Amino acid sequence: MKPAALSFEALRDAVERLPDDRLASSRRAALAHLAEHGLPTTRNEDWKYTDLAPVIDISNRWLQRERETAPSHEREKMVEQVCRSIDADWLVICDGAIDNRFATDFEQPGISVTRLSEHGGELQFGMPLSDLNAALLQDGLRIHIAGGATPSRPVGILLIDHAATSPGMSQARIEIELEANSAASFVEYHVSSGAADHYANTVTTLRLGDNSRADCVRIQNRAGNHSQTGRLSVVSGRDSRFRHCAFDLGGKFIRNDLHVDIARPGAQVEFNGLYLAGDQQHIDNHTRADHRVGPATSTQEYRGIVAGSARGVWNGKAIVYEGADGTDASQTNHNLLLSDKAEVDAKPELEIYADDVKCSHGTTVGELDETALFYLRTRGLSEHEAKQVLTRAFAQAIVSKSPIASMHDTLADRIADRLANLLQGAGA
Amino acid sequence: MLEIKNLKASIGGTEILRGLSLNVGAGEIHAIMGPNGSGKSTLAQVIAGHADYEVLAGTVTYMGKNLLDLEPEERAREGIFLGFQYPVEIPGVNNAYLLKAAVNAKRKHQGLPEIDAFEFLKLAKEKMALLDMDPKLLNRGVNEGFSGGEKKRNEILQMAMLEPKLAILDETDSGLDIDALRAVAKGVNALRSPDRAIVLVTHYQRLLGYVEPDRVHVLSQGKIARSGDKTLALQLEEKGYDWVREAANG
Known about the structure:
Shape of chain A: globular
Distance between the termini of chain B: 33 Å
Structural class of chain A: alpha/beta
Strand content of chain A: 35-45%
Structural class of chain B: alpha/beta
Largest sheet of chain A: 10 strands, mixed
Oligomer: heterodimer
Strand content of chain B: 25-35%
Largest sheet of chain B: 6 strands, mixed
Low-confidence stretches of chain A: none
Shape of chain B: globular
Strand order of the largest sheet of chain A: 2-1-5-7-9-11-13-15-17-19
Helix content of chain B: 25-40%
Order of helices and strands of chain A: HHHHEEHEHHEEEEEEEEEEEEEEEEHHH
Mean pLDDT of chain B: 93
Strand order of the largest sheet of chain B: 6-9-10-3-11-12
Number of helices of chain A: 10
Order of helices and strands of chain B: EEEHEEHEEHHEHEHEEEHH
Radius of gyration of chain B: 18 Å
């Protein structure tokens, strides 16, 4: 079968229809890059398990139609729900457009929020899907944390999409920079509504100055018919610390790429994630840590609970360059399968070219522990309750690693809701 | 309270219980002894409802109900408690959470409201004190990283909180030091009551020095080979299990 292709004519028209602002030349350059390189196919090792055909199809259908935005009451409801449950100073991007109310009012000491179109700099688009993102980007956010600043509340970025009657598509781009000696935390929350197909494509960059600290939590809780690809690229400074925890609770077709570039010694990098997949969901997490120098540590643990006919993919790569002595890299991936039709593809990859390094990896795929289930049932819990208790405990290991403690209870609640749903669907 | 007639059960195609009959009345403490492989643990697991064991023949009646028709959780809510020989470690599930969930599952079954949080904590701490348990264990994962003695005490704690009508303790005494054994015995004796039956499954006579049984049964090859009063346990200790086997075969 011929791989699905983007309709470039329609794409070019869509790019031309965007405002002739400071991002225009970047958009055209990105489009040219995309036209030349195309989107990755499953022949590419990094995309072996994830065929982009479903989102290419949504993109093509979206390109034929007018843009649909969320009815304001729908949007307000989602904004309120998220903002009320998580304590943060919020920024909102709705259907790829920056919500002025939040961006303009944003005033926190040490934090400056601007639009990418105000800067006119080049958008980066060398990586897969980042060219598509740059070509169709309406506008993006730049969040700058001043040197030495340590804002007490997290910066929240809420990304809302809506597709009720016709296929939807949106691009979002966030550039975050922490100057030296600053420390800040970030929540990235993805939600959507509507029963039509939707595809959201996000690009986030995070640059950590020397001795700075960033704590990030990403929650993806999209509607059941909505797809997402997201790329987060991190460059870590000397003695900096980056902690990231990702929760994929919803959506249909999800691919996350997390890439950390350790170019300065003394960096501590920790990224963890949890994915809960049921029905026909496809959730793929690809991570990569480039240890260019040592000493530095990167640790990661991803856990997945996969039910129905869903598929979970985890691919964790660590590359230790020649001379990056004192590197400590570990990666773990544990999976629980709740049905016979569920599938997990787990692949740790270590490439080591230095001598003095400590690297480890471990992967497991299993089912719920029958002995523990029986034990709980002999204490009066129904089989369904016992399964809920055990799956929640499995997920809780990641929640407790999440770097923003004030969100733990909210996360645990959302996860419990989703698990109840998965277990119901799994015929438990 | 519990009436077992000609029970035959197998696991993985191997018949373990081969026509076992036993009656346990309210207020009684029975000890079931026997060598390894005689079917002691199988009996405990079958009563609790473990799905890996297949009942081939016989009946088990509990409080007038056909026990074999009930799911494990229904048996628990009806007042049956199994103390595990090897209590399961469940990392991530809070010990207090499980205790409360277990108590509430039973209360719900009885048509009672959920236990008050304050009341629950008070009760749990009271029972833990009786068992010389560190209250901190309440906030750890279920049996997670517990010592052998702590795990067995935790089983007795669950039993004390659930106040079962019929408790079956499967080798609760094995692997315990003398302090833990005494604490466990104290917990069991505290539950002795005219409307409760307790079945102690044990390999050794040791526990019976602290918890005096009304009846002692010796299991051999999946059947009760001999029954008697507490002196039978002492005889066994002296003569060994071969004596029962010979008597049964002779």
